Amino acid sequence: MIEGRAAATERRAAVIEGRAAVTERRAAVIERRAAVIERRAAVIEGRAAVIEGRAAVIEGLSPVDPTKELVIQGLYRYVRNPMYLAVSTILLGEALLVRSRGLLGYWVIFFAAVNLFVMAYEEPTLRRRFGESYTRYQERVGRWLPRIGA
Predict the structure, then answer these.
(1) Confidence at residue 147, expressed as pLDDT on a 0 to 100 scale
(2) Would you say residue 28 lies in a domain?
(3) Domain extent for 37
């Protein structure tokens, strides 16, 4: 009788171990599927950023000659630097798309350099050229991000 109970207990333990192994395998499958979904989401985000950047480049092409009047139409209604932002968005989108740390590093350097150029040269030059109208424009329109409700 005791031997029968021991055998039954051993069988139950074996069943439980088998179920645990199955559960572990299922968890591993779920983890792999989650990783695939995360990679696909990164690819989609990257593609969206590339498309958005290209659209901004197409819409915001600047003239070769400096303008005589302050341009605040088109994409310039939303951000002060739509072309730099478009190129930056394309680079960031490509870095996300191909999951490249090197390209991400390049984007960081590019964005820092452009930001320094804009703040140290471009904005002071435009302030001198257009005066108070440029200062008001700066107050209303963000350098890189649109101002919500402004």
Answers:
(1) 84
(2) yes
(3) 2-140
